[in-house]
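Work Package 3 committed the consortium to producing structural models of liganded targets before the mid-term review. Because experimental data for this complex are still outstanding, the team generated a predictive model from sequence and the ligand definition alone, so that downstream docking and mutagenesis planning could proceed in parallel. The input record is reproduced below exactly as it was submitted to the modelling pipeline, together with the SMILES string for flavin mononucleotide.
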Amino acid sequence: MGTPKFNPEAVTKIIRERRSMFPAQFKENDPVNESIIEEILENANWAPTHKLTQPWRFIVYTGAGLKTFGDYQAELYKLRAEKNGTPFLEGTYQKFKENPSKASHMIALLLKRTEGSGIPVMEEISAVAMAVQNMYLTACAHGLACYWGTGGPTFWAEAREDFGLEGEDMLMGFFYVAKPATDQWPAGRRELIAEKVSWVRE
Ligand SMILES: Cc1cc2nc3c(=O)[nH]c(=O)nc-3n(C[C@H](O)[C@H](O)[C@H](O)COP(=O)(O)O)c2cc1C
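The resulting structure, written out as tokens with the ligand in place, is given here.
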């Protein structure tokens, strides 16, 4: 295969203009065509991965599955508050219950360790994060609203078994996808790259 002809301007444009958009900005009850969701997942699968361990796993919630998930995380939030004495806020409970259904699809981001691979967990976390960046870029290229959230059960030990996690497996959060309710694309904000780089030239 010869070197593919890429378009660097197009790559730079999508990288710099990619944005997160949140449930308040989602157009509700208007699902994204599932061929785009399949494309998002396929592109995730092409992330770099040391020793080809391909540690990313996904669970896609849509339709009634979003309500099932919302009910699940709201009830687990309540249970944790009762069991662990962590604060219970009615507003948070309602958000856990209702937010997933505002999306078209919500994709749980899982890290599956390969036994005996010898790959440090940091590298597997990095590989999953690169898969998520592919998802972000693909969703944004289609003009969709999306974001990576690490709320809800992401760090709840009680949820591990429900997600089939063993040993060093991880739940790394949730990737929300929806059509945007507005045609206002969010502005970007970054400190200058020059403040974050040092060069060694000799
Ligand atoms: C690992 C990771 C976790 C994140 N978790 C959350 C989250 O829990 N809640 C949230 O509102 N945004 C979350 N975000 C999205 C950031 O808020 C978003 O990337 C940031 O505001 C910059 O905006 P941009 O993505 O439009 O450039 C997360 C992003 C990353 C990379």
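Reviewers should note the following from the model. The domain at 29-60+104-182 is CATH 3.40.109.10 (NADH Oxidase). These observations will guide the Year 2 experiments.
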